[in-house]
Amino acid sequence: MAQHLAAQGKEVTVVDRLSPAQGSTAASTAMLQWEIDTSLVDLSDLYGFETAARIYRQSLLAVRGLGAQVQLLGLPCAWRYRDALYLAAVGSDGERVRAECKARQQAGLPSELLEPGRLKDMFGITRPAAIASPGAAECDPVCLSQASLEHALRHGAKLIHGDVTAYDFDSKGARVALADGIEIEGDTLILATGYTMPPFVKAEVQKMSASWGCVTATQTPLGFWRGGALIWEDDTPYLYARTTSDGRILVGGEDEAIDDPAERDAVSDAKAAALHAKLEGVWGLPLPPFESVWSAAFSETEDGMPLIGPVPGCPNAYAAYGYGGNGITYSFLASRMIGEMLAGCGQPWFESFALDRPIPSK
Are residues 217 and 346 in the same domain? Predict the structure, then answer.
């Protein structure tokens, strides 16, 4: 957000109570997919096919746009384009995945259905069905965050380390007060505060959860992991996994509605064991133990989509909450959407991400 607005010539001040790229950024597995947490079929059931297809197409464009920005600006973040492989759940008949692929193809999204024989030949994986989709990517999220901020600072943005303790809004602008007594005033406030949502922001579709991540030591070669595809499952809770540029295996998932950090830590060993067993089951191969395991707060929405746009009841305040498994992709999308809103060029489809959208029901 800061990089985009500063590059547009706006006067930008970033306030961060932590060192940049700490918090949830450092915990991200950084699987940059255009496929969102809610399948196109299920999203169509909620909002209709045309709306759902438009959301998916915007997500695809966001990944492409972020990749183009990384290349154009030379952001050092270990960016690599990858295919995404969406596996049918173990024990299923694969029909959900087949229906999803048909819907994606109808929407003009790049997706290829792999039946068991072709899936085994191409990826060495035995499942009832899978979808192979180009256009995904992976990166180092800490490097991407820091490089984006450094670019913003070179273009005039300011960075202040501080904890915001009070907010004020009116038709003339927005103001914040910091714990050390500093006050900052501007035309617009943009809340990009990750999973720490101020109490005046209300979003009924949002809910807190927890997610786990695990990584192995460097393993070479990883010949069985063909093409370094990003792997995830049509299951709940689902497994997602990728390789890294230095030859590690990075795994995430086992999401659960846990808020308390101590409670998260208490079940980390069990979560790591479950993820390791699921990963070994993908190829039916013994895999090395995890070198590191971590958990983090994780916020998601009922429909799998972000919260982007004006904050209801707060003039001149906007929210950029990526939320869900596509946080980095959504963050890029949020920067472009809010940039257009500030320029008076909002689009009707922006309403799909409104903070006050009702909880969907089938």
Answer: no
